[in-house]
Amino acid sequence: MSGLVLKLAPKERVLVNGAVIENGDRRSRLSIVTPDANILRLRDAIHPEEANTPVRRVCYAAQLVLTGDTDPEDSRMQMLRNLEELSQVFVDSDSRASLAEATDALLSNNHYRCLKALRSLLPREDRLLAVRPS
Predict the structure, then answer these.
(1) Is pLDDT of 134 > 60?
(2) Is it the case that residue 36 has pLDDT exceeding 80?
(3) How many H helices and E strands in the chain?
(4) Maximal C-alpha separation, the chain
(5) How many angstroms separate the CA atoms of 33 and 113, rounded?
């Protein structure tokens, strides 16, 4: 059996195709076998006021598609533009690989994989924004 495996902590919430599901009192493991299911761990969700950096804004846009709040076709071109802008800043090979994966995922309508690839850039962006020239 292939697909996404979610390991949930007690009382953890996850959004699956627009429905919020809360785990019970024990740790559990769910196997998502539907290939096009939209999944978002609510503990990983970015709130609108937290979408205040370039990477976080693109993550938030992908998240809105996963939650069903934005049509994938309506947001695709803007997200591609944003990814292109990020590629002007993140020039190291690891970041380029993450951006390439995010772009490929976006073009194949896999917004979960796109979000996952973009989230790997968040620590790097935080470090870049923390460095201020004197």
Answers:
(1) no
(2) no
(3) 5, 5
(4) 55
(5) 15
Please give the average per-residue pLDDT across 109-129, as a whole number.
92
Instruction: Kindly report whether the global pTM for this prediction surpasses the value 0.90.
Output: no
Please, what is the Cα angle at 63 between 67 and 93, to 5 degrees?
Answer: 155
Residues 97-123, mean pLDDT to the nearest whole number = 94
Q: Cα(14)–Cα(52) distance, rounded to whole angstroms?
A: 24
**Dist CA 107 CA 101 (whole Å):** 10
- Say which residue the tokens 């939209």 belong to: 38
Euclidean distance between CA atoms 117 and 115, whole angstroms: 5
Average pLDDT, integer, range 109-117 = 91
| The two structure tokens encoding residue 20 | 């919020």
Count other Cβ atoms within 10 Å, centred on residue 48.
8
Both tokens assigned to 114: 């796109």
